[in-house]
Amino acid sequence: MSIEKIDIEKVKGYISEMYSKKPLYSNYFNQMLSPDDYYSKTTHTLLISKAFTGFNRIYLLSDNIDDATKVLKTLKGINVLNIPSKGDISHWEKLMHQSDFELISIYERFYNTNIRKRDEKEAIIYAIPGQEKEIYNLFHESGFFSIYTDFLPSYEEIKKMIEQKNVIVNVVDKQIQGAFVFLIEGLKCNFQAWIDMSNNRLKLLFDAYNIVVEKNLAYVYLWVNSENKKVKSIHRMMGAKPDGLKDYTFIKNK
């Protein structure tokens, strides 16, 4: 099975064709297609591969388990496939097992509408241009995150987010000890990445909620590793609760 450099318009047509068949398997939800992507197409299956540093992220649409298995088995290198779902994924689990993919994590989405101002003695500090390298290193060199399962903003993404005032920091002794990245969409604020190495590790979370209050936003959304009981308890303390959506990450490295 050959995998080819993407022809975006052709693949958009294939996507429409696959959706018309009401595929049993689909983890493609209008992700942006790039000229650097690759794809593979059969009668029953469309696979899209996006290259990241050290691995590929896979999107699949298929109406046939045996055909999808054959396509997935041809993949070389490290390939990661995410399945967001509020329901049963046993059909996916069977496909992943047949295709030599292994489950490595489950993340839960939390939401919060019980948003209130938090008392903070210290002012909110927004990151400024020139700090992107320090913030990038803080996220990428901490060892706390996985490139396969966590949102780790790239250097360019951090730079852009700083310009958009979407990054706040915790500065101790003139060094950035913590960083918090968020994205505002309408009345919704997505908490995207958070790290803090200081002794005041909740400051940035309190700051983020205070920003939500100041901007009169109505919703907060965030993802938490199902096994990270400590972080889940912190978010529950703030009023957040799971909405039932889970993101399952499978990896194939054979």
What does this structure look like?
Strands 1, 2, 3, 4, 5, 6, 7, 8, 9, 10, 11, 12 and 13 form a 13-stranded mixed β-sheet that branches. Strand 4 and strand 5 form a beta hairpin. Helix content is 28%, strand content 35%. It has two domains: 4-100; 111-245, Gcn5-related N-acetyltransferase (GNAT) (Aminopeptidase, 3-Layer(aba) Sandwich). It has 254 residues and is α+β, with helices and mostly antiparallel strands. The mean pLDDT is 95.
Largest β-sheet summary: 13 strands, mixed
What is the average per-residue confidence, as pLDDT, rounded to a whole number?
Answer: 95
What would you report as the Rg, rounded to the nearest angstrom? 20 Å
CATH topology of the largest domain: Aminopeptidase
- CATH superfamily heading of the largest domain: Gcn5-related N-acetyltransferase (GNAT)
So what's the CATH class of the largest domain? Alpha Beta
- What is the architecture of the largest domain at the second tier of CATH? 3-Layer(aba) Sandwich
Count of distinct structural domains: 2
Gross morphology is elongated
How much of the sequence lies in strands comes to 35-45%
Share of helix, binned: 25-40%
State the low-pLDDT regions, or none: none
Please tally the β strands and state the result.
13
Distance between the termini: 16 Å
Précis, in short:
By secondary structure, the protein is an alpha+beta fold. It is built from seven helices and 13 strands.
Could you outline the blueprint of secondary structure elements for this entry?
Blueprint (H helix, E strand, L loop, with lengths): L3 E2 L2 H13 L4 E2 L11 E4 L3 E8 L2 E8 L2 H9 L5 E7 L4 H9 L3 E11 L12 E2 L5 H9 L14 H9 L3 E6 L2 E11 L2 E9 L6 H12 L4 E7 L3 H9 L3 E12 L2
Parallel strand pairs: 5-6, 11-12
Antiparallel strand pairs: 1-3, 2-5, 3-4, 4-5, 6-13, 7-12, 7-13, 8-9, 9-10, 10-11
Helix pairs in contact: 4-5
